[in-house]
Design brief:
It contains 3 helices and 9 strands; from the N terminus they run H-E-E-E-E-E-E-E-E-E-H-H. By secondary structure, the chain is an alpha+beta fold. A hairpin with a 5-residue loop joins strand 5 and strand 6.
């Protein structure tokens, strides 16, 4: 039992760094920033963002006006748009993945009137899996005790680890399929080259034979 708990904690520590991403970036009025996230299926993703407008007078960034908004677009591994919505200058968006694989998350401004040649700094914090769940709200809604809430968190963590493991198996299977397909193509290309070389050799031998016969050397 103790060994199983140690393995579970090790797996959780392995996947934990991949579950939370905090960063900031700058965009101009025609710029579009996209991020690729590898997400298992049936996994909740929550993004918290905040926009700041560059102030040329102070050389710093100040809170953006309420009129500034961000357009958030998410595409699944099949390049199908699963979410496209305009939010305010500071907010939160969420979506649940249907298929495992690389999801593309794009953010860009919904207007260009406020720029006037300035930059916009966007702070983005992505949370994946159980990290995206607000357990305080869950405990309040379901009236859970501290112990019940902790058990709920552990169950969610185990479920997320299982999803991550299944996704790793999916990636390995896809990689193996790609490798086998590539190996077959290389094999058939080698066979094709060998056949071409044999045919060229036969043609050269026949051409030389005709040449020697024409010169009456044979």
């Amino acid at each position: 039992m103790c060994e199983s708990r140690q393995i579970l904690l090790l797996l959780y520590a392995t996947f934990l760094p991949l579950s939370i991403h905090g960063l900031y970036f700058h965009i101009t009025e025609v710029e579009r920033k996209c991020f690729i996230e590898e997400i298992p299926d049936e996994t909740l993703v929550v993004g918290n963002y905040k926009c700041q407008l560059y102030d040329p007078k102070t050389g710093g960034y100040m809170p953006s006006s309420p009129g500034i908004g961000m357009h958030v677009e998410v595409k699944d591994p099949d390049d199908k748009v699963i979410m496209s919505k305009v939010y305010s200058s500071e907010g939160r968006f969420s979506f649940t993945s249907n298929d495992p694989g690389e999801h593309v998350i794009c953010l860009y401004s919904n207007t260009t009137k406020w720029f006037s040649g300035s930059q916009l700094r966007v702070h983005l914090d992505l949370q994946v899996g159980e990290h995206a769940i607000d357990y305080g709200n869950v405990a309040q809604k379901e009236k859970l005790t501290e112990l019940q809430l902790r058990v709920r968190q552990l169950l969610d963590q185990v479920e997320q680890i299982t999803k991550e493991q299944n996704y790793q198996r999916y990636r390995e299977e896809r990689f193996r399929t790609t490798s086998e397909s590539t190996s077959q193509r290389v094999l058939w290309w080698s066979i094709f080259q060998t056949i071409i070389l044999i045919l060229m050799g036969l043609w050269q031998m026949r051409h030389l034979k005709s040449f020697f016969e024409a010169k009456k050397l044979v």
